[in-house]
Amino acid sequence: MSTPWPAYPEHNRPIHTNPHPQPHYSQPAAHYSAALPPQAQTAPKSRRVAALLFFFFGILGVGNFYLGQKKRGFTKLGLFVLGVLGYFIFIGIFVLAGLIIWSLTEFVMVLKGSDGYDRDQDGIRLV
């Protein structure tokens, strides 16, 4: 079985070649990457501040936001809102109790420096 068009047209070039090249759309030169500024170094975060945020505002996810754990912080904040809204139909009490236990667990983990709570999201060790 033959193809309806030849693999190489009459000019003896492959089909995928552009007969009208666009010279202004080439790859950037290597010197552009050297001109970029270096990534800013952030100061190390305090273990005491993180522990206090987890203890007092842990159910709101403030400690997680401080360490750069945004997904976990938003999850805790959303669960807190659902717990407050559901408090009047009795199920919110369990959600809020779970958040309190979760926050106290993270508080202890920050104090001990265990399981990823010894560093922030950028990998910088807490001081």
TrEMBL record:
<feature type="domain" description="TM2">
    <location>
        <begin position="44"/>
        <end position="94"/>
    </location>
</feature>
<dbReference type="Pfam" id="PF05154">
    <property type="entry name" value="TM2"/>
</dbReference>
<feature type="transmembrane region" description="Helical">
    <location>
        <begin position="49"/>
        <end position="67"/>
    </location>
</feature>
<keyword id="KW-1133">Transmembrane helix</keyword>
<dbReference type="GO" id="GO:0016020">
    <property type="term" value="C:membrane"/>
</dbReference>
<keyword id="KW-0472">Membrane</keyword>
<feature type="transmembrane region" description="Helical">
    <location>
        <begin position="79"/>
        <end position="104"/>
    </location>
</feature>
<dbReference type="InterPro" id="IPR007829">
    <property type="entry name" value="TM2"/>
</dbReference>
<feature type="region of interest" description="Disordered">
    <location>
        <begin position="1"/>
        <end position="28"/>
    </location>
</feature>
<protein>
    <submittedName>
        <fullName>TM2 domain protein</fullName>
    </submittedName>
</protein>
<keyword id="KW-0812">Transmembrane</keyword>
